[in-house]
Amino acid sequence: MRSTFSILCQDELEEIHATTLEILERIGATVNSPQALSILEENGAIVDRSRRLVKIPSNLVKEALRSAPKGITLCGRKTAHDIELENGKIHFGMGSTTLHVIDPHTWKREAARKDHIAEAVRLADALPNIEFVEQFCCALDYPRSVQDLHEIQAVLANSEKPMVAIAYSSTAAKNFLRMTSLVSGSIDELRKRPILAIYAEPVSPLQHDEEATNVLIEISKQGIPVLYGSAVQSAATGPITLAGTLATANAEVLVGLVLSQLVRRGTPFIHGVISTIIDSHSGVMCYGAPEFALINAMAAQLTRWYGIPFFGTGGTTDSKTVDEQAVCEAMMTALPAALVGTNLIHDIGYIESGLTGSFEMLVIGNEIADMCRRIARGVTVDDETLALDTIGDVGPGGHFLGKKHTLKHLDEHWKPKLMDRNTYEAWKKSGAKDMVVKARETVTELLREHNPEPLPNNVIEGMNQIIKESGGV
Q1: In the chain, which stretches have pLDDT less than 70?
Q2: What is the pLDDT of residue 1?
Q3: pLDDT score, position 207
Q4: Which of 285, 351, 288, 270 lies closest to 73, judged by CA?
Q5: Which of 338, 353, 373, 426 satisfies CB 3.0 to 4.6 Å to 287 for a cystine?
Q6: Residue 334: inside a domain
Q7: Domain containing 179 — which CATH number?
């Protein structure tokens, strides 16, 4: 059976939910979109227009939780890449929009570029445990006005897997839909088989930016999966206590849930929490803290209790390079996320507290994801696996190496592809390579050999035209 892991008991889940409802009803949230204010006011929320403060009655939250789909299928260009977001099913994927990248040719930290996105996404397309892709880094070599359009074009052209994309404005969101509709064939086909979810964020604590909120509205109108993710930072933009941090983050996300369902009942909605702590000495938002893993696990458990899909984080680190700290923190953040059933575990490949993307870490994260899957799968206990007859056949002092039962269950044990289990002598003979060296070799090999099926020329030309119409090249 599948392993289960819980941080919170039933009473604690109910307390966090009750606190969330009280935050929304009594304290409220700032909503800076006039369009959103009107939608909320027309449907029973209490709106103070002078302060743009909205208080949301609990009945609106309860109705939104009822109407949001309990499962979502994010689709690849081919059905083989489809992923189901429901019932604690776990999927690992990339992150988006770092400012720097460890270049896969020079292995030096450089400002992020569009070609970095293209290569990182192509690498992820080749890695079996990276099941969804994102922008990875920013296309800083293009003007801000069309930067995000170049980013999504680089992703769509270099992977056949589902995509999660962050849109910087409602105009960008509309253009994202135009570009992905070119790949799908039409907006109706995109709605039937959504190859992306579009992501927006509130501004903590308890504020909703006009553009981000309008992105959510625009995508909800079209019935395309929308992801609203809070990044409350404990002790800075949220309470220092983890329970208080989660209640604040949850309140922010549920504003987005309510709005999405009021715009279009049944809009596929993905709850997201990317909250962590602030380091008390450096002021850095920590991507490798045990509290990060705890907040993610609690949020995943809460959202699973709600019965809606969840977007969390794992496989990340605060290390500035791919070293022992990086691998330790990556596993520490990935494993709880997997065990608790986080549907979308993102930011594989990130180092430096989410500021830099690393190709080597993407490969190492692929291996970590595979190990986490094995642990999360758990153990089956039945007559076959208890192997009483085989134990009796071997008896005291024998061995099981040549038994049919052993051969039948050879796939029971996880097998590494990157990590080394050889003897010291064999390891020396094969070049005495450490993990980073092997990861770099894998990066080079896969970038040389792997190419997804290219998009048709007319689709690429259509995307270029959208970018040109937006004032870019």
Answers
A1: 1-4
A2: 43
A3: 98
A4: 270
A5: 353
A6: yes
A7: 3.20.20.480
